[in-house]
Amino acid sequence: MSGERRTPQSLPVLPEAPADPGRRSFMRTAAAGAAVAALSGCGLEDFFRKSFRELSKGDVQKVLASLERKHSAKYGRAVTVSGAPAQPGVEFGYGLDLSRCVGCRRCVYACVKENNQSRKNPQIHWIRVLEMDKARGVDLAHAEVYYEADQVPRPGHFYMPVQCQQCRNPPCVKVCPVQATWKEPDGIVVVDYDWCIGCRCCMSACPYGARHFNWAEPTLPKEELNPVTHYLGNRPRPKGVVEKCTFCIQRTRAGRYPACVEVCPVGARKFGNLLDPESEIRRVMDTKRVFVFKEELATHPQFYYFYAT
Amino acid sequence: MSGILGFLRGCARLVARGNRAYYAWLGVLAAAILIGLLAYAHQFRTGLIATNMRDQVSWAFYVGNFTFLVGVAAAAVLLVIPAYVYEWEPIKEVVILGELLAVSAITMCLLFILVDMGRPDRFLHILPLLGSPNWPHSMLTWDALVLNGYLALNLTVVVHILYKGYRGEHYNRKLIVPLVLASIPGAVSIHTVTAFLYNGMAARPFWNASILAPRFIASAFCSGPAVMIILFQILRKTTRIAVKDEAIFKVAELMAYAMFVNLFLLGAEVFKEYYSATEHLLYTQYLWSGIGPHRALVPFAWLALACSVSAFLLFLVPRTRRNFVTLNAGCVLIWAGVYIEKGMGLVIPGMTPDTLGEIYEYRPTATEWAIAAGIFGVGFLVFTVLVKVAVPIMTGTFQAPDRAADHPSPGKSAAVA
């Protein structure tokens, strides 16, 4: 497929993250990890910790290492938890070609796999693909999320995938009572899962249904875990907190495409650095007519829809 | 110090003693609380999946109850304004009961928020210094601030007046009058901020109407006093507290005005939605006529309207307002009407359909009902205990031993506000 194994030329490439020393010897540290997990389980360690943004650099390293031990012990394999910060001169932008999208929902499941979402009871999808009637245009009252996948694309219909729009004016960030969610300098709206109190104000505020709540302990089979994680992204989440699309922060900050871009069989998804004139997303914006979803709400998304043909 | 200990011992004795009806009442409350605790233990273990809330309808029954009870708490002001601003005598005796009601209502509000949290163990995160409150941006931070402030204010007033009454002394006017005056904007602010919590969300057109806060205040001025009226009658039958008919009828008259404003604002909103008929009409439609087969709220919406309109008529006509049978029926109707309107009728249509147009029909689970019953049990228990202590102080039968000898009967005028 043309959409796979593309090199994201326009993306700044970071060196590979240094190998975690705990990775090789994780079996030896598993016991210690279990102890840490037990401590976190009873809440004392988490209870008195500061929020991620207020931690000193040294404390960040300690927290990341502790999470790596905890997750490695729980899932029985080496899990890395990166804390890679935003790179200067990068502001991510996303383009989605509605004339190409066929509604196959491969993006939905690639996202679930990449980002360690709960598989069932509840099943969490960060991307929702809406089937819409061509005659009505973008009309949410008549949109259908639960259409039959083997019949796509249905005649007379078009498909509109919706995920976090990474608003420049994010209503979800404004309403959070504890500053557990914020917009990073590279434009990604993130959640500190260890600080979220689960009040779900952000879910009420989001016009795009992009935020999802862990109503129960997430079900993530050990063998299906993606062990390459980021603190603000796809690391395993506890129950009772909100999660959302982060443009695959663990990939994009390391110079890769988001999983949904990579998997799209028709190349409907474009991604890149808005500040780089040579980037793919800038080519879209220079040559196509783009629009943002629910522009009347002045959320100013960094996610652009367009019709290429 | 021994005075305070003696006071507390006396309070404990008062609370422990009572007739058979009192013990039966305590038994009912204890059962409700126990059921609530068991249900909460289940929810705490399994997560909020024990409720029927989902991503599409992420706030529901708990938040609806919270909203309704904020209104009940705010309603104390309806009694405080005439008592203190206009020096209207008959009502002064019962102001303290309004404040006791506010204390128990806020207790329930805080509990409903606690059970709605995904991570209640992290409640410290909203506190200054220990946590990182998003102030002034987040309305929930404001709500926590004003609710706790209002609770502290009412507790201070109540405890001071009651303790002074117990000591047979007059309360400190320099302390109490400013606090009571401050509780008037305090009551308005708790309900306004709660309205703003919904109001500020552009993603939810059903809430994003500037009429929302005035509607909240208007409906609160109906529901809170409805409780008070029934309560006054119970108290004057079972205790030596004398509440004049005149005071009750005055409160009923104020409720008629408040209900008129409430219904008028509702009409204004319904007109705007149906006449302009934009895509935002959908939420109003879901409430009043349903969308296709999705009609879960429709019977409740019309029931609430029927209750509110008939209660309004009962309170409007002086003859039915002054007849205790119709008056009490009106109070119950108002309660039912506002409870439905401010609870499910506000929260659920705000969330249905969701922001991407999906319709998820929410109905509370047994767990949610049980937890709500438990919280109401706690609220009623708090109120019962407070009244059990307050009434003997107000009637002068519960007094410090040394004072009782000096001042055989200080009377109500010194003991109550």
UniProtKB/TrEMBL annotation, chain A:
<dbReference type="InterPro" id="IPR017900">
    <property type="entry name" value="4Fe4S_Fe_S_CS"/>
</dbReference>
<protein>
    <recommendedName>
        <fullName>4Fe-4S ferredoxin-type domain-containing protein</fullName>
    </recommendedName>
</protein>
<keyword id="KW-0411">Iron-sulfur</keyword>
<dbReference type="InterPro" id="IPR006311">
    <property type="entry name" value="TAT_signal"/>
</dbReference>
<feature type="domain" description="4Fe-4S ferredoxin-type">
    <location>
        <begin position="187"/>
        <end position="216"/>
    </location>
</feature>
<dbReference type="GO" id="GO:0051539">
    <property type="term" value="F:4 iron, 4 sulfur cluster binding"/>
</dbReference>
<dbReference type="InterPro" id="IPR017896">
    <property type="entry name" value="4Fe4S_Fe-S-bd"/>
</dbReference>
<dbReference type="InterPro" id="IPR050954">
    <property type="entry name" value="ET_IronSulfur_Cluster-Binding"/>
</dbReference>
<keyword id="KW-0479">Metal-binding</keyword>
<dbReference type="GO" id="GO:0046872">
    <property type="term" value="F:metal ion binding"/>
</dbReference>
<keyword id="KW-0004">4Fe-4S</keyword>
<feature type="domain" description="4Fe-4S ferredoxin-type">
    <location>
        <begin position="92"/>
        <end position="121"/>
    </location>
</feature>
<keyword id="KW-0408">Iron</keyword>
<dbReference type="Pfam" id="PF13247">
    <property type="entry name" value="Fer4_11"/>
</dbReference>
<feature type="region of interest" description="Disordered">
    <location>
        <begin position="1"/>
        <end position="22"/>
    </location>
</feature>
Automatic annotation (TrEMBL), chain B:
<feature type="transmembrane region" description="Helical">
    <location>
        <begin position="369"/>
        <end position="391"/>
    </location>
</feature>
<feature type="transmembrane region" description="Helical">
    <location>
        <begin position="175"/>
        <end position="196"/>
    </location>
</feature>
<feature type="transmembrane region" description="Helical">
    <location>
        <begin position="61"/>
        <end position="85"/>
    </location>
</feature>
<feature type="transmembrane region" description="Helical">
    <location>
        <begin position="144"/>
        <end position="163"/>
    </location>
</feature>
<feature type="transmembrane region" description="Helical">
    <location>
        <begin position="296"/>
        <end position="317"/>
    </location>
</feature>
<dbReference type="GO" id="GO:0005886">
    <property type="term" value="C:plasma membrane"/>
</dbReference>
<feature type="transmembrane region" description="Helical">
    <location>
        <begin position="324"/>
        <end position="349"/>
    </location>
</feature>
<feature type="transmembrane region" description="Helical">
    <location>
        <begin position="216"/>
        <end position="235"/>
    </location>
</feature>
<comment type="similarity">
    <text>Belongs to the NrfD family.</text>
</comment>
<dbReference type="Pfam" id="PF03916">
    <property type="entry name" value="NrfD"/>
</dbReference>
<protein>
    <submittedName>
        <fullName>Hdr menaquinol oxidoreductase integral membrane subunit</fullName>
    </submittedName>
</protein>
<keyword id="KW-0472">Membrane</keyword>
<feature type="transmembrane region" description="Helical">
    <location>
        <begin position="94"/>
        <end position="115"/>
    </location>
</feature>
<feature type="transmembrane region" description="Helical">
    <location>
        <begin position="21"/>
        <end position="41"/>
    </location>
</feature>
<dbReference type="InterPro" id="IPR054823">
    <property type="entry name" value="DsrP-like"/>
</dbReference>
<dbReference type="InterPro" id="IPR005614">
    <property type="entry name" value="NrfD-like"/>
</dbReference>
<feature type="transmembrane region" description="Helical">
    <location>
        <begin position="247"/>
        <end position="266"/>
    </location>
</feature>
<keyword id="KW-0812">Transmembrane</keyword>
<keyword id="KW-1003">Cell membrane</keyword>
<keyword id="KW-1133">Transmembrane helix</keyword>
